[in-house]
Amino acid sequence: MTAFDDLMTYVRETEALSQVAGRLGWDMETVMPPGAIQQRAEENAAMASVLHARLSAPQIGEWLAAAEAPDAAGAAQLRLISREFERVQKVPARLASDLARATARAHKIWAKAREDEDPAAFLPALAEVLAIRREEAACIAGEGGELYDALLGEYEPGAKATELAAIFDALRPGLVELRAAVRGQPKAPSVAGIFEEEAQLALSREVAAAFGYDFERGRIDKAVHPFSSGSGLDVRITTRTSPTDPFNCLYSTIHEVGHATYEQNIDAAYLLTPVGAGVSMGVHESQSRIYENQLGRSRAFTGWLYGRMRDRFGDFGIADEEAFFAAVNAVHDGFIRTEADEVQYNLHVMLRFDLERALISGDLEVADLEAAWNERFLKDFGFAVDKPSHGMLQDVHWSEGLFGYFPTYSLGNVYAGCLHEALRADQPGLDADLAKGDPSAATAWLREKVQRHGGLFEARELITEAIGTAPTEAPLLSYLNEKFGGLYGL
């Protein structure tokens, strides 16, 4: 056994334990009895402590110093292990367990506060989580380092907040201009009726399978906030239903299938290793967004989906396939990020990005967050937040300590725009398959270009290799202008 072999054996055991910890999170979101939260908080803290000890163990440094990579994949493993080792060593074990304990409690407090429309009930828990994350960021960033960049690096390694802000600044004017133009046009049609939950879930399972989700290695459950969990041979997703809005269920499912199939399609040789997971959350989001939007909301695919909806639900107030395409892609005023149309979605993300940067820097206090949110929302969207669950309480992320995560959603949209442009160039006849409810040619292209590699390459390198040029926001803006310009006769 070489130093590399010893290191990889140790890392695989650690990755297996990490998957177990992730399963505890899935259970907490889906089937855990509500009275178990205090015990689960301690269980999560114990797992976090064990993982921190393993990830920061001195022998990792010794193995890294002696290890020689046998091939390119091995070199990538060493790069990722070294990055994680350096990061974890800077963070005291106490903080890792404190964060796991605090976020388990905060999540349940957030869910109850959201249900009760009571932001004040959530603020102490949020303040506790924020304080821990600030302390963690200070440990990672070091003297004079940027705290927000230290947290962002956990989700998008190597990215800087200033660079992402520049991308968002380039996106914002085009999005605002397109939104203003659309708002002057007649409203799109909307579905009408009551859509039985089991029929929604049955259709969502059919659509998930069409997009390549492997139910032998996954399952679909319900959660307050849809998510994907796991990697390799056990990748689970959740969705949600609304009796009056079947699109919420269907497109939440397609979105999470994009995440899940990325994990399922990574080369099996990388199972339970650092390379055996998505390279970054920006790339991860590119898969979920291109599945959901460029493919799932395309004119061709919605034509097929319209027929399946009629089969399941009968008449639901939409006259034909073209009207259904317009309904699926309606630009509408709304409060909820996950339900936002493609034109306005990134404006929701930018709002959160700016607010959480201010929270981490100390320029914004938790006590002032609701007022700051409401003021910014009114400025950006032109109408006032009507209740906290439509405002600062709508997202699960801050209760889980995921500061630095939000900007990866818009970065993923940028990557998705680039990938879609390249995909269409490579497969000019794609719509004929989509019109039959068959996105397999597109998902196979994404599997080959992006998904199978896992963490073999850095995120930007991976996208550049897939599309043949450096990624920019231009393809996303071009796609949005062409699609919504056509829909609204601009």
Q: Please give the number of β-strands.
A: 3
What profile does the largest beta sheet have? 3 strands, mixed
| Cross-sheet strand order for the largest sheet | 1-3-2
How many helices in DSSP terms? Answer: 20
> Which segments are poorly predicted (pLDDT under 50) over 5 or more consecutive residues?
none
Q: Would you tell me the structural class of the helices and strands?
A: mainly alpha
CATH classification, class level of the largest domain? Mainly Alpha
Amino- and carboxy-terminal Cα gap = 66 Å
H-E order:
HHHHHHHHHEEEHHHHHHHHHHH
- Report the β-strand fraction as a percent range: under 5%
> In which range does the helix fraction lie?
55-70%
Protein model, in words:
There is one protein chain. By secondary structure, the protein is mainly α. Helix content is 64%, strand content 3%. The chain has 20 helices and 3 strands. It has a 3-stranded mixed β-sheet with strand order 1-3-2, with helices on both faces. A hairpin with a 2-residue loop joins strand 2 and strand 3. The model has no long low-confidence stretch (mean pLDDT 96).
